[in-house]
Amino acid sequence: MKKRFYNFKKRRTVTIISLVIVVLLVLYIVAVIYSTGFFQSSKIDERDLSYWQYENGFIKNTDEYAQVGETKTCWFLIHSYTATPLEMKELSSTINSEFGDFVYGLKLSGHGEVPSKLEDKNLSIWYDEVEKKYLLFDFCDNINFVASSLASSLALKFAEEHEVKNIYLINPFLEKPYKFYKILPYKTRVELFSDIFNYKKKKELGKINSIEGQNNHVSYWNMPYSPIKNSLSFINEVESNLSKIQNPIFIAYSENDEVAGSYSADLVYDSVSSKTKLKNNYKNSNHILLLDYDKKYLIKGIINFEKSNR
User: Fold this and answer.
1) What is the pTM of this model?
2) Same structural domain, 16 and 123
3) Which of 141, 84, 116 is nearest to 227 (CA)?
4) Which residue of 103, 209, 210, 284 is surrounded by the most CB atoms within 10 Å?
5) What mean pLDDT comes out for the span 22-31?
């Protein structure tokens, strides 16, 4: 009798555990479908097409720009992944007004249109675009680079291979630290799953704490994973050559950045050979620093660093 009762309890326990596992698995699949483009790759552009105003296939007012200067110092400003040059417009105007320098806000191909235009892009393609633009500005004696988030790799590689004056990295994103509950390292997860999940359905246009910043941010609602996967070798090469960089470098990050945190900022700061380097933490902000609560302090920090290292 006791044995039969024990077996019954054992079977019931196994059944309950099995049901819990099934429920959790179903909930996980539902969450994946809801938050990514799993089984929905054809719908990648729908949210953006219904949200933004377009003109000739481009989101209005997202063109790249140039602000003419009177000096021989030029600035290249490169925006975040899925964003546009508008992200850096206030910084651009301040630099131009403060120093009278030529400032160029580059728009990386595939941005300011629809998310599907990014699917065949990667950092290697964008790096070629930066090099081609660079060759046009032979009137510049000194060139500074400002890059945000994923685009930080572009500025760093350029400094590794070309003559650059100063480097400014804003919320740099090269990789993420390992977290045990994720089981696999970040780059491994990207390699294995990006082609399956297709894209991420963002809950907000960008990780910005400021409501005003959110309202002014122009970015895609859906973020393709494939350009990140296809940029991993580029990022790895950049990381392996960071010690070649000797330029003055200013690194801005936020410890409360939900995308990058401080990991990439620390990695770059500790790896470059620059004698002059500064790493500033903007605690009131999230990932898109130039549109968040600390933007005035960040812009002032960039201006002051430039004054000290011209």
Assistant:
1) 0.91
2) no
3) 116
4) 103
5) 69
pLDDT at 47: 96
- For 212-227, what is each residue's pLDDT tens digit? 999 999 999 999 999 9
What pLDDT score was predicted for residue 24?
Answer: 75
Across the strands, what pairs with 73?
Answer: 142
Per residue in 248-267, pLDDT (tens digit) is: 999 999 999 999 999 999 99
Q: Print the domain residue range for 26.
A: 2-35
- The CA radius of gyration of the chain, in Å to the nearest whole number, is 23
CATH number for the domain spanning 233: value is: 3.40.50.1820
Q: Alpha helices, DSSP H only, in the chain?
A: 2-35, 46-51, 89-99, 123-136, 152-161, 186-197, 211-216, 226-229, 232-240, 263-271, 295-308
Domain co-membership, 200 together with 147: yes
Q: Which residues contact 202 (CB under 8 A, 6 or more apart)?
A: 219, 220, 221, 222, 223
